[in-house]
Amino acid sequence: MKKILLIGKTGQLGRELMKDAFSFGFEVSGFEKEELDVTRESEVREHIEHTKPDIVINASAYNLVAKSEESPLSAMELNFLAVSKLARICKEKNITFITYSTDYVFDGRKGEPYEEHDEPNPLQMYGMSKLAGESAAAASYPEGTFIIRTCGLYGGKEGSPDKGNFVLNIMKEAHEKNVIEVSFEQIVNPTYAADLSQATLKLLQAKADAGIYHLANEGECSWYEFTREIFTLSGIDTKVKPVDRGGQSGKMKRPKFSALKNEKGKSLGITLPSWQEGLKSYINFLKK
Questions:
Q1: Contact, 15 vs 57, CB < 8 A?
Q2: How many angstroms separate the CA atoms of 8 and 58, rounded?
Q3: Other Cβ atoms within 10 Å of 142 Cβ, number
Q4: What is the pLDDT along the chain (288 residues), one digit of tens a residue?
Q5: 117, 17, 7: which is closest to 56 by C-alpha?
Q6: In this structure, how many other beta carbons lie within 10 angstroms of the beta carbon of residue 49?
Q7: What does the buried/exposed string (b/e) look like for 221-256 if buried means 16 or more CB atoms within 10 Å of the residue's CB?
């Protein structure tokens, strides 16, 4: 049984990986930020020496998209420098390395779902920091680094520790207002963390070649359509008003069409459910 060292075990994705690993034939040792600070190389080396993993999965990141504009060094420290160091350490010790990236590495101008080979062109600091991490890891350890891009991640009863998630936040807003406004110009494929966890572990089982993979729930929708589906499944009757924000969040630009297309994973038989199915599974989970 291969051993996984998981960084970020209390995040939306980390919790799912902790739950799923054993059933996919992996032993997992997970650490949260207080136990393992990924920005401290000495701590990372100490935990790797102690755990002796075959695989390191980095599910930690600086995900405060808007705040990245104000705190670019914080974003770069977690999304670029830490990822770069992890890749180098894994190369030294011949450990498979998995890290996650985002649809925000693209500018959204393609007008259809992005494939793994498409050229990135981020519009904001968050996307730049994630692309920098991708590039550093792939350059220093191309033979052993898996970069998994996903889109609009959500999961868990509380969402992510720092910002919840879109589903929980919009449901909370619906209980506080009679009408809420949601953008309809941004096209995405929101992804349920439980589906991404299983797809990640299937990729490891498949003994796939290292490289970039797009793993996101199938299909695409606007945030407005996604919200409508959330309310339908949850029995919420708050009115949703579609608005065109021009891909802007304050002064920060967001890609207008950043849905991801899973080509490489699909060739290995790895597909995720549709975004509607993923959302239905999540709403059912929240009702338990």
A1: no
A2: 7
A3: 12
A4: 999 999 999 999 999 999 999 999 999 999 998 899 999 999 999 999 999 999 999 999 998 888 899 999 999 999 999 999 999 999 999 999 999 999 999 999 999 999 999 999 999 999 999 999 999 999 999 999 999 999 999 999 999 887 889 999 999 999 999 999 999 999 999 999 999 999 999 999 998 999 999 999 999 999 999 999 999 999 999 999 999 887 666 678 999 999 999 999 999 999 999 999 999 999 999 998
A5: 7
A6: 9
A7: bbbbbbbebbbebbeeebebeeeebebeeeebbbbb
- H helix runs in the chain, sequence order: 12-20, 41-51, 67-70, 72-76, 82-92, 125-140, 166-176, 193-205, 223-234, 264-267, 275-287
Sequence letter at residue 113: P
